[in-house]
Amino acid sequence: MSATSSTIPVTVLTGFLGSGKTTLLNRILSENHGKRIAVIENEFGEIGVDNDLVIGAEEEIFEMNNGCICCTVRGDLIRILSNLLKRRDKFDHIMIETTGMADPGPVAQTFFMDDELREAMSLDGVVTLVDAKHVLLHIDDSDEVKEQIAFADVILLNKVDLVSTTELDQLEARIHAMNSAAKIYRTQDAAIDMDNVLNLGGFDLDRALEVDPKFMEPEYPFEWSGLYALEAGDYRFLLGAGPDPAMNMNFRSAEAASETAMRETVEKAVLVFSDNEVELQTGAVIEPSEQLSQINLEGDQLEYILRVPAAGAYTLFTEHHPDEFEAYITDAQGNRVEASFEREYKPDHEHDEDVTSVGINTQGDLDLDKFQEWLRVLLAEQGADIFRMKGILSFSNSEKRYVFQGVHMLFDGRSDRPWREGERNNSLIFIGRNLDREALNAGFNSCLT
Length: 449
What we know:
- The protein is an alpha/beta fold.
- The protein folds into 3 domains: 195 residues, Rossmann fold; 121 residues, no CATH class; 91 residues, 2-Layer Sandwich (Hypothetical Protein Yjia, Chain: A,domain 2), CATH 3.30.1220.
- Helix content is 24%, strand content 31%.
- It has a 7-stranded parallel β-sheet, with helices on both faces.
- Helix 7 links the parallel strand 6 and strand 7.
């Protein structure tokens, strides 16, 4: 349900109290971006304090100050949006600012439930501001904060001047684990190019892949693997100082020195990485095996011995990318040994216990009836925990992409442009609480023809 030329794009602006929503709103209402924006502003409480902070601008500001937009004023939201339609010629875009305590879900649902609004308006995107300095005080015990992050298409990690780069990296990794499809911008005083928050176009697979090229892939307990064609003998595995004091790795044999052979060892390596590791100190000898090794990385120059019993193909899986430790392999003469094939993986970082995202990326055509029935049962049983669904689907007997978007138990979709040659594929992402990756993939695959 992305914006089309005939519908009015609507942006939902959300974020916890003090995250910088009003600051961003002031920028939207004052900068020369060529858009006429109707703003619906909301406060928490009886007195509209925020309205006094909004600097003068030509756009009219609609304010409801008797409660949260997601519950008590929902009828007022529909009424105001309906009234706006009578003045359609006076604006090009609608911005709805939620209160800091609001779950953005019911706001997004408005554009699926009301027939009049559904025909005239389309959810262009959800923009969430996150207070980089204080969000960790709320993220573990506030469902609102988790849901605001989970619903977002764009996240502004604001107030970055108040925290260190290391803290920002850790916070961004945690946010990404909760919502891998959102684009994250680091901002100070909510300064952002308006093109990054307006006219997002709803779900855009290319944009999602730009955020994370691997976001539709399964997650792995390692970031890198390399396949080597090696002669018998000892090889030096050299590493420098890196970000972690230790790293898990597995050195194993492969069927052949080919990319296919390396792919076939991946699932075996996943099983190895689920076992208990053996701790090794620098200088230790590592032989090809089903054993998970944890190598000590404390020090500036570290060396481990990879012992190859016979000439053949061998694969090295590492928890972190070798570049992080300036790692490389040399033969007995000190010559560097390069991998014949190497691959990077989407790492399985520590996830928030509640909110995660599950991507499905499958070729083949869907049976419409089977898909609708599977989705009906899924949403009936788990809809409350599924915050957002969005994707591009391939249905049998249709030559066009089907763009799909949903919020909790409500969903909508439309036929898009024709598939290009070699492009046809199903890409779908679920964002929510307590999601079962295997069950979602199995259910989706059961709908294929």
